[in-house]
Design brief:
Distance between the termini: 50 Å
Structural class: alpha+beta
Number of helices: 10
Order of helices and strands: HHHEEHHHHHEHEEHEE
Largest sheet: 5 strands, mixed
Strand content: 5-15%
Helix content: 55-70%
Shape: elongated
Length: 398
């Protein structure tokens, strides 16, 4: 019984507030109509786009009300650019028209029907003692037949009152249908988003290939060329100057050792051998052990993911730990590996000074591009004074 009363009371409040937003809808439509009337004279044309943007305020109020009523998020459908070309503008106008026509009526019923029930009950109880009472139906209740009509009216009012939750649900669902992004618009925005992220991924991949080529050309290749040159000179001096040949062979060995070390570094930057040997959890723990800042690793869900996803997660952790070491002035770092079989989630928290901002660099934009290349997301929370919490989610599906 209490739950039904709560539902009933919630519906009444929703519809009564809807009557207020219905008035705002009427005013918004009237304002837009006035601007349209001025358009043939050239006065209203510059004001049309600002007027449409202003009308989005009451629409936004109803969107948030419907989202709370239905218990689900209703995202804004607007695109950047002129509102005159935005498909969401037509849907907003449709909602303003529907809500202007029905919102006041439903709000008045939500307010008046319960009061009508109470009034009929009071009339039925009090008329015998008062000898007659002016009823709400336009006649004086001073006899039992008229009291019977009052009873029937009270029953009708009560029956209509029980329909108020359905009316509130209809109003909220209509708002959701019209005020959320249209399916085609969502798909188009999604395609545009994926196109942008894929372009960023290709650009990052090209930059990575150029870096590897530069490292091999300027480092490993130069050192191997030096080894070849030193061995060639040693071959020419082998019979005439054995001591010099010995020194050249030692230098060639040192140079070859350095070249091998650089080659291993390049290989690790492509795909860390630790991932093959220990898996993602072991590789992340190895990074934590070598981090100058004390780092704890917590594993909430552990399973094998695609190699590319694990490599991306490994490099995200490596870059974040490098940023923490250089910029955060932190004393502890906590890394949490979780998610599901189809989603890898990373949570990295440090107790440093905070204030991290992608716009100021620090490698955060590169981390975001790396996540978005896998259709993943990055969320950064870093208030001044800390703590800084970075969350990365990487889908693992095919």
């Amino acid at each position: 019984m209490k739950s039904r009363l709560r539902v009933w009371w919630s519906a009444i409040r929703y519809l009564v507030v809807g009557a207020g937003t219905s008035v705002l809808s009427i005013l918004a439509l009237a304002g837009l109509f006035g601007v349209l009337l001025l358009c043939p004279f050239g006065v209203g044309i510059p004001s049309l786009a600002p007027a449409i943007r202003l009308s989005r305020w009451p629409v936004g109020v109803d969107r948030r009300r419907a989202a709370r009523r239905l218990g689900e998020a209703i995202p804004e459908p607007y695109r950047d650019g002129s509102p005159l070309k935005d498909p969401a503008t037509r849907r907003d106008l449709a909602w303003l028209a529907i809500h202007a026509a029905t919102g006041m009526l439903l709000g008045s019923m939500a307010f008046g029907l319960p009061l009508g029930v109470v009034q009929q009950v009071v009339t039925l109880v009090a008329w015998p003692a008062a000898g007659g009472i002016e009823g709400s139906l336009g006649f004086v209740v001073d006899s039992w037949p008229r009291a019977g009509l009052t009873l029937l009216a009270g029953i009708a009012f009560a029956g209509l009152t029980l329909l108020l939750p359905r009316a509130a649900r209809w109003q909220a669902r209509t708002a959701r249908k019209l005020l959320r992004p249209a399916p085609g618009v969502v798909l188009a925005d999604r395609v545009a988003e994926l196109t942008a992220t894929r372009a960023a991924a290709l650009e990052a991949h090209g930059a990575e290939l150029r870096r590897i080529e530069r490292d091999l050309h300027d480092g490993t290749q130069a050192r191997i060329a030096a080894v070849v040159l030193q061995l060639g000179i040693a071959g020419q001096l082998y019979d005439r100057d054995p001591d010099t040949v010995r020194d050249l062979l030692v230098k060639a060995q040192d140079t070859a050792t350095d070249a091998l070390a650089e080659l291993r570094t390049v290989v690790r930057s492509i795909y860390p051998p630790l991932l093959s040997e220990r898996g993602l959890t072991g590789a992340v723990r190895a990074l934590a052990e070598h981090c100058p800042v004390p780092t704890a690793v917590h594993v909430e869900y552990e399973t094998h993911r695609p190699a590319a996803v694990e490599a991306a997660a490994y490099f995200v952790v490596a870059e974040v730990l490098a940023n923490v070491t250089k910029h955060a002035d932190a004393s502890t770092v906590d890394i949490t590996l979780g998610g599901t079989a189809s989603l890898l989630s990373l949570r990295i928290r440090d107790d440093g000074r905070g204030g991290a901002d992608e716009r100021r660099g620090s490698g955060l934009s590169g981390i975001r591009r790396r996540a978005e290349a896998f259709d993943g997301t990055l969320t950064l929370t870093s208030p001044p004074g800390g703590p800084t919490v970075l969350r990365v989610e990487l889908p693992c599906g095919s």
